[in-house]
Design goal:
alpha/beta; globular; four-stranded mixed beta sheet; D-Maltodextrin-Binding Protein, domain 2; six-stranded mixed beta sheet; single chain; 18 helices; 14 strands; 424 residues
């Protein structure tokens, strides 16, 4: 690893050092001659660390001679991505198993940084179609789905009932209910979502585009500039322009939008499943008043949610590939996924667990989430996704803030993404 890193610029070397320190703590004890240690890099799990630690110890008990050292990465997803890219490009063997955002797998697979783990996946029917697609590159699988997410619509069921509305199935129904109720309820906004220029905006916009029949790519062909996509972006822009959504959504990410809805100041919210548990806390102002449904769609089309979540991959240069494979198999097992779901509220990747009585009793929203995951869509699965996303973030933000007309933003995005896809 030393020679590879020394070949990088001084600035990159410093960044590797800074990121590599994050979450590592004190130096681990040396391995015994009969002991193999696998290093697991992952995002921070918020909450009591005991259940996660217990799972690691359970794995070690079942696999004598194998130790697991878990190391957390920086909190921000883009910093985690940067850490992986710098270290894997440099040929690092300092970690064996890595938690991967669903949008990174094709990029890492094409670069040869992660191993083919096709043999570790359960039967295709055990997984949601979108999560299987997200770990597939050129017909092979390079990660195993661990947790899954999908965009959901949260709504104030008490306010809808009071004003004579039901949960909206179409975007026009949502706009009508949001506008009407907000006008009758002082201090209450209609619909809040994530409109800041970042990846969350891409998810919000794609959900509308897909639910209008639009697409970004058809294979390698760019098909963004279409009547369907234009319809979706015109509606997205109208939400703020016509007051259905407050101007604050143009700078909102997940947490600010959740706080607005969670404090009782909005009728509708688009967010991820994690928010449900927070809305049902004993001190929540809206406890017992929240309904959950799949996202709306345009007339003549179907609901679509952006797939989120995390997968487990194996460093292609791991010193202990067999041990790493055993660990991935254990951590993605029904037993481990059930334990992590109960402890941290993460959503399992295995479809069968959405009928598990214990999980449903603890998290009733899983029933609605299962429907959303069945309709979930992967963001474009391409090694160039990071570049595509930068273009989409910029153009979608210009639409949301009113800086560009939707047709102009689509034309510019189409031209720039065509250039990216044509690169060797």
């Amino acid at each position: 690893m030393r020679n590879a890193i020394e070949a990088l610029s001084r600035g990159l070397a410093v960044l590797v050092a800074v990121l590599g320190v994050a979450g590592c703590g004190d130096a681990p004890p040396a391995e015994r001659s009969d002991e193999r240690t696998i290093v697991f890099k992952h995002f921070r799990l918020f909450g009591d660390p005991a259940p996660f630690a217990a799972l690691l110890r359970e794995f070690e008990a079942r696999h004598p001679g194998i130790r697991v050292r878990a190391e957390t990465l920086p909190a921000a997803s883009d910093e985690q991505h940067q850490f992986y890219v710098i270290n894997l490009r440099g040929g690092s063997r300092d970690f064996d198993v890595l938690a991967l955002d669903v949008i990174w797998v094709a990029e890492f697979a094409r670069a040869g940084w992660i191993a083919d783990v096709t043999g570790l996946l359960p039967d295709n029917e055990a997984l949601f179609a979108a999560s299987l697609e997200a770990v597939t590159y050129e017909g092979r699988h390079y990660a195993v789905p661990w947790f899954v997410d999908a965009g959901l619509l949260y709504y104030r069921k008490d306010l809808l009932e009071l004003h004579g509305f039901s949960a909206p199935r179409t975007w026009s129904e949502l706009a009508e209910a949001a506008r009407t109720i907000a006008a009758r309820e002082p201090g209450v906004h209609g619909f809040v979502w994530q409109g800041r220029q970042y990846e969350g905006l891409v998810c919000n916009a794609l959900e509308m585009i897909w639910s209008a029949g639009g697409e970004v790519l058809d294979g390698e062909r760019v098909v963004l500039e279409s009547p369907e996509t234009l319809r979706a972006l015109e509606f997205l822009q109208s939400l703020v322009a016509q007051g259905v959504s407050p101007a604050i959504v143009t700078t909102a990410t997940e947490e600010p939008s959740r706080h607005v809805f969670g404090s009782g100041r909005a009728v509708f919210l688009r967010n991820w499943p994690y928010a449900w548990t927070l809305f049902e806390r004993p001190d929540s102002p809206i406890r017992g008043k929240v309904g959950v449904a799949p996202l709306p769609h345009f007339e003549g089309h179907e609901s679509a949610s952006a797939l989120g979540g995390w997968n487990l991959g194996i460093n292609a240069r791991s010193r202990h590939p067999d041990e790493a494979a055993a660990f991935v198999r254990f951590m993605t097992s029904p037993e481990a996924q059930r334990a992590l779901s109960l402890a941290y509220g993460y959503n399992p990747s295995l479809r069968a667990l959405y009928a598990d009585p214990e999980l449903l009793a603890a998290q009733p929203h899983l029933e609605a989430l299962r429907d959303a995951l069945d309709a979930a869509r992967s963001r474009p699965v391409t090694p160039r996704y990071a570049q595509l996303s930068q273009v989409l973030q910029s153009e979608f933000s210009a639409v949301v803030t009113g800086l560009k007309r939707p047709a102009g933003a689509l034309a510019d995005a189409q031209r720039e993404i065509e250039r990216i896809m044509a690169e060797p």
